[in-house]
Write a structure and sequence with these properties.
- The protein is an alpha+beta fold.
- The protein has one domain.
- It is 33% helix and 19% strand.
- The chain starts with 5 loop residues before the first strand and ends with a helix.
- The mean pLDDT is 81.
Length: 81
């Protein structure tokens, strides 16, 4: 169970893994509102091992935040799933 924020990765592709309030499993990944969608998607691809490790460590539920532009580029969503 994740109890406090944890930073994974390095450079422009780093991400913050945060607990979901009131939950005993799962986490939220935040990239920050200022990062362009292509940078976020590139980071997810480049750090797939870290992302998979994070996924398993929090019980198999990750909520990706700060990806509002994904609605304009649905193929990117498929590429990270």
């Amino acid at each position: 169970m994740l109890t406090e924020p944890l930073t994974k990765g390095s450079g422009p592709g780093h991400f913050q893994l945060e607990p979901i309030d009131g939950r005993t499993f799962g986490a939220r990944i935040s990239f920050g509102p200022e990062r362009p969608l292509n940078v976020i998607v590139d980071a997810l691809h480049a750090q797939s091992d870290e992302l998979l490790e994070a996924f398993y460590s929090v019980g198999g539920l990750i909520v990706l935040t700060d990806m509002h532009d994904i609605t304009s580029h649905p193929r990117l969503l498929l590429s990270i799933s």
